[in-house]
Structures are given as C-alpha cells and as structure tokens.
C-alpha cells in the first residue's frame, strides 16, 4: 500500500492571516487565500472522493481495497477548517483529515470543541496534532512526548465520541522517539511532513509522509502530487533531505533562520 497525502494548513480571505490558526511569518507562509485553494481543489479533489472512507476502513478493520490511497490533510486546528475548507471538500464528495492542537481549542482563531465534533459528524477524520504544538517536538523527553500525545488523544476522543487513531507531527520535526511515543499512546497512523508515498511501520503504528503546500504554490504542484509525477517526486525528495539536514544540524537555530528569511 502507498499513501499520497497533501498537507495544507489554513485558508484565509483577502490576506487576513491572523483570522485562522497560528500567527507569524512562518505559519502565515502556509496559509492559502480562498481563490487559490479553490484552484488547488479543482485539480486535486476529483481524485479524493471516497479516499477518506477507505482510510477509515483501514483504521477500523485493517483492510484496504486499493494499492494507492490519495488523501488531503490539514494541520493546526484553525477556524477555516469548518468555515471554508470542509464545505468546499464536501462539494466534491470528498472528506479531509483535520489535525487539531488541542491546547488551542476555543482560543482566538481556533475551532471550538463543538466545531471539531461537527467536522467529525459531517464525515471528516479528526486527528491529533499534539496538545501544545511544541516548536521542536523531537527535542522533548519520552515522557513529555507521551504527555503531548495522550493528552491530545484523550481530549479529541472525548469530543468525537470514539477513539482517535490518527496523528500528525507538528513542525515536521519527526524522530523515531516521537513515533514510538505516538504508537504507545495508541495511534495507528502517524503523518509526517516527509515527501514520500511509501508507508513504513514502527510497532503497531504506520508512518505516512505528506507533501506540503505553501502560500505561493500553484495548483500544478497539487496536480503533480495527486497524479504521481515521478520527476516532481524526485525533486521534492532531494529538497526535503536538504531541509532535514539543516534542521538536524541547526536545531532551534533553524527556526530563527526561517523566520529571518520569511520577513
């Protein structure tokens, strides 16, 4: 089985970046204006219908009827998940996977618990994006990681009325220890930000990569991802590994460098 997953964040209007999700030059660089997101969906959404339902079958029964699964995911938990993104997906008979940083529920720009429940009731998948969204989650101790994952999982499971089985790594700072803690916390699938459609496994948890979409990315990028363009995949793989090398060598200084470059 291979899983090709698109990674988006918030969808805004008229460049009002502060209205949904986290604020700052880093988070803002991942927010798409509404017309741009609509253009992305025009090329990607026709391949997404029924795919989230197939993932649910895999989570619940451990079986899947297709060798390649195409998914669309959203990180953080901003209010645009319900106000803009979900209705547009539903117009294509598609569902999203929405990852929530639970510490921010009900705060300015983020979903209320009742809105997360509504997304679930409308057929979308709810997952954990950790509890506090640490800047570099891979720097936490193992016990701190367990606390992040278990707290978020318990909160979300209580909200939706069933066990939440999916999670995504905040900031793209994946490590085996992050994955082990997620697996011990009971997650069956952990999404990273590594651009790959190969599925790995650690214990009872599947590790799934995703292809990030940023503010200035054109719809053709989403089309190449969802249609499995081999040249694009190779280029993304090289770019990600260079970025991962910088993250590992610079540590917290990587975030400072990114902030300066985005100003």
TrEMBL record:
The keyword Hydrolase applies. Its EC number is 3.-.-.-. It holds the Pfam family Polysacc_deac_1. Signal peptide: none annotated. Residues 68-263 form the NodB homology domain. Keywords: Hydrolase, Signal. It is an enzyme of class 3 (hydrolase). GO terms for molecular function: hydrolase activity. It is found in: Secreted. InterPro entries: Glyco_hydro/deAcase_b/a-brl, NODB_dom, Polysacch_Deacetylase. This is Polysaccharide deacetylase family protein. It comes from Agaribacillus aureus.
